[in-house]
User: Fold this.
Amino acid sequence: MRRLDSSTKGFAEAFDVLVNDRRETDSDVSSIVEQTIRNVRARGDVTLLEMTRRFDGFDLNKEGWQVDASTCRAAFDGLAPDLRDALNLAAKRIEAYHKAQLPKDRDYTDKAGVRLGARWSAVDAAGVYVPGGRAAYPSSVLMNAIPAKVAGVERLVMVTPTPGGEVNPTVMAAAHLAGVDEIWRVGGAQAIAALAYGTDRIRPVDVITGPGNAWVAEAKRQLYGVVGIDMVAGPSEIVVVADAKNKAEWIAADLLSQAEHDPTSQSILFTDNAAFADKVALAVDAQIAGLATGAVAKQSWSANGAIIVVKNLEDAMPLVNRLAAEHLELAVDDDRAEALFDLVRHAGSVFLGRMTPEAIGDYIAGPNHVLPTGRRARFSSGLSVLDFMKRTSFIALDAQSIKAIGPAAATLADAEGLPAHAASVRKRL
Ligand SMILES: NC(=O)c1ccc[n+]([C@@H]2O[C@H](COP(=O)([O-])OP(=O)(O)OC[C@H]3O[C@@H](n4cnc5c(N)ncnc54)[C@H](O)[C@@H]3O)[C@@H](O)[C@H]2O)c1
Ligand SMILES: N[C@H](CO)Cc1c[nH]c[nH+]1
Ligand SMILES: [Zn+2]
Assistant:
């Protein structure tokens, strides 16, 4: 863990290093992914078979390539009642939040008599990546699949690794609940490439969404253009802005909640009190020791964690904006949280006040937990129904309205030296 103090010499340089640290996209990852994509294009299912054997440790031909609908239904029926209730509640809240995102078509006639507008429609087929290497993510099934179904996607394909050949029943139960149509037991960059280009077994999709580790995120980035993607959602991150009125144990748990995802995850605390910073650092170490995920959390905290002491929390906000973190907690009194929130320009999702831990957003609040990482909240947003939709504009003229705006079009075509364009308008005037 790095400990920085904004009042010391050399802070600006040390903070630059933190901001510019590209911890998930070293050249190694990107060249491995390039090669994987090439292999999937050339050898399709054979590459999937080999890579699944190598990374997930089982034989797709023996254990099955897909999980069928009846297995998912049985998994749902077999859930413990409290888990089923929790999944149902999460699904309802996610659905309600995302239904409200549905865009409206436009259709109107302007003053020149020209009819204009746009219609929204869903993509035909979407692929959702559900991570499954280190942990199973039923919550990510809901977060990806429900917005796709709300958008009206007809063919919804899920890919997820099943390490050791173990199919996670809660993931499959969530797929049943969310209405996933096809499930393939492949993961990593190879699964993304299969969805983008298709293989003999897997038909290609139009859009791929979902989070994943560095290889998955890089594959989506490289395949953008062949398919649509939501954004680059890689290893999890959290920035917590906290004053000394917090309980150090709560803040330590919040930092660890994202550190436990992946050794390349990042957790950063800003505080205006050095003694509180010490307490949180001790609490993190104490809690790591008791976590089943302690080994991963420790790697993440040691390599990428930071505690930054600032003069006051308002001064921290420009620094917070430069980090553009996936998650930002403002753990201060409610009115101060609002004031700090007004200073936030770049963050994937913001958690306001002391009683709003980020983990609530991971599971149950309603907004999507698939969010941009790696400083990409500067230019992209969390997953929404719009990622599964596209907008088609339309224009309708009649004999009157073409007279109103046609001559200007022909003049512009002349100026561009495109006579066929000009003629196609003038012939109608
Ligand atoms: N940003 C978000 O919205 C969000 C949400 C949930 C999870 N996450 C992140 O998703 C990630 C999940 O990662 P995971 O590893 O548990 O599961 P994963 O499914 O993303 O990755 C597992 C796959 O990675 C591939 N892989 C593993 N080691 C490899 C190597 N050395 N070379 C090439 N490929 C390799 C394998 O094919 C394996 O099946 C975490 O980083 C977590 O932080 C992000
Ligand atoms: N924090 C992750 C997004 O970075 C989402 C998640 C799912 N389950 C637990 N957490
Ligand atoms: Zn999480």
